Amino acid sequence: MLASDIQTQATMCQLLGMNCNVPTDICFSFEGFCARGGKTDEHRDGWGIAFFEGLGCRTFIDVKPSIASPIAELIKNYPIHSTNVIAHIRKATQGEIKLENCHPFRRELWGKYWVFAHNGNLENFSPAAGDFYQPVGDTDSEKAFCLILNTLRETFPQGKPSLEQLYQVLKTITNSIACQGIFNYLLSDGEHFFAHCSTKLSYIIRQYPFAAAHLIDEDVSVDFQALARPGDQVAIIATTPLTDNEVWTTINSGELLVFQQGAAILS
Amino acid sequence: MLASDIQTQATMCQLLGMNCNVPTDICFSFEGFCARGGKTDEHRDGWGIAFFEGLGCRTFIDVKPSIASPIAELIKNYPIHSTNVIAHIRKATQGEIKLENCHPFRRELWGKYWVFAHNGNLENFSPAAGDFYQPVGDTDSEKAFCLILNTLRETFPQGKPSLEQLYQVLKTITNSIACQGIFNYLLSDGEHFFAHCSTKLSYIIRQYPFAAAHLIDEDVSVDFQALARPGDQVAIIATTPLTDNEVWTTINSGELLVFQQGAAILS
């Protein structure tokens, strides 16, 4: 990759995800992530976050930069306990700064909500219209999400298949989309959490014995030992590490990981 | 209707909607409506509100009573300018108090978001599973919404038809669902706003010359003359009137109204 490419990619969107075995709030990670939306980085073109709570799912989106958004301020201070979270701060590449272009996107498939956020850029990406899902906005990201869901639905019309079957089809369509450009994404139905790395994505799993963590983007620490119980397990996935005193694992380019209950279970 | 039936109906959910010709905030109406979620009335089992902004749509839902919800507090104080709004406070009849059972519900149809909220109760309502949309939660309301969207999609597979064609099909499926119980609802795709009255629904259209309005549920007044411009037109639709110094129009039982640009255009 050329230096100019790295620069281009560094100015794209950023992703943050969480998957855990007990409902957990994301206030600490979101605070650091949020600072990248205009304070420590330049992702000022809107942001969004989705929380799964049981079968339910609520999404908060805003076209304001996350550091200036009253809704982001609420999310930082109002602990929502969730097992699967997907957040996104946007640096627009395709599609204007409009609400319909804010990630994460959500659709219902097989009677469950599916949520998707993308970091990257798919050049000249014009998939054929599918039978079920159509984009509302005009981003490459929502087109890719609709293509993924259309493919899953057409392949498995009866309902969600086994994880292994689902993974194979998702991997194939992901690889084909990734040929069009940079395609880092997070995807979840509240049961499984998929993380695809095209160029840049890392994760950390926090489990017993817990330690203290310190944010890179804000001078804030948290002592998880005081907050977590021995059996708790939390996976945090982010475009770049959020803390400077923990060891994050870099996901390989082309790798599609599946997390469940706070653990990476398939790759 | 027997006195006991009236009592039963009075304790169900409540609806609030807005349709207007210029993006307008709903802070004033929402403040009065919100009080009914545990202060002036007993609709304590969650609440929600959806805002259309251009093609985009954002929904805020919470299982907490609206009078005790930090998210409702944000909505009361953060003016979101929208042309179509649907809000709901819940008194659970079917389905537990869980996030997936909070109204409004949202799906994508023909590349646009559709939002739906229901006041009433459909006894023994078990429509056959449709080809496209499935409920995520277990309310009669979400089943009815999915049945409506499945019917529209099957009837018009090519995309949104003329309003007249859409209205006829929506009226037919609405009448057939309304045979199962009480079915007051609000439905919008951000372009048209549909309001169906089964037992209780009223509306008011605010336009030039604007006057002051005073809430029933909170001692709050607003002078629209100071806020609105001569061409502005705003329709507010609610289960029961929100103000005590304006004349609200009661929608007839069995009537399906369509609002656009702040005016009732079809019934």
| Cross-sheet strand order for the largest sheet of chain A | 3-2-4-1-12-9-13
Can you count the beta strands of chain A? 15
Number of domains of chain A: 1
Give start-end ranges of low-pLDDT stretches of chain A.
1-11
Structural class of chain A, please?
alpha+beta
Global mean pLDDT of chain A? 91
> Which bin fits the share of residues in helices of chain A?
10-25%
Describe the sheet with the most strands of chain A.
Answer: 7 strands, antiparallel
Order of helices and strands of chain A: HEHEEHEEEHHEEEEEHEEEE
Q: Which homologous superfamily in CATH is the superfamily of chain A?
A: Aminohydrolase, N-terminal nucleophile (Ntn) domain
What is the CATH level 1 assignment of chain A? Alpha Beta
Q: What proportion of the residues of chain A form beta strands (DSSP E)?
A: 25-35%
Write up what this structure looks like.
2 copies of one chain form a homodimer. Chain A has helices spanning 3-10, 27-35, 70-77, 140-155, 163-178, 224-227, and strands at 14-24, 47-53, 56-62, 82-89, 105-109, 112-122, 181-188, 193-196, 202-207, 212-214, 221-223, 233-238, 249-250, 256-260, 263-266. Chain A has 267 residues and is an alpha+beta fold. Chain A has a single domain (12-266), classed as Glutamine Phosphoribosylpyrophosphate, subunit 1, domain 1 (4-Layer Sandwich). The first copy, chain A, has a 7-stranded antiparallel sheet with strand order 3-2-4-1-12-9-13, with helices on one face. In chain A, strands 5-6-7-8-14-15 form a 6-stranded antiparallel sheet. In chain A, helix 4 runs antiparallel to helix 5. The relative contact order of chain A is 0.18. Chains A and B meet through strand 3 and helix 3 of A and strand 3 and helix 3 of B. Chains A, B: Residues 13-267 form the Glutamine amidotransferase type-2 domain. Chains A, B: This is Glutamine amidotransferase class-II. Chains A, B: It comes from Microcystis panniformis FACHB-1757. Chains A, B: One of its GO terms (molecular function) is transferase activity.
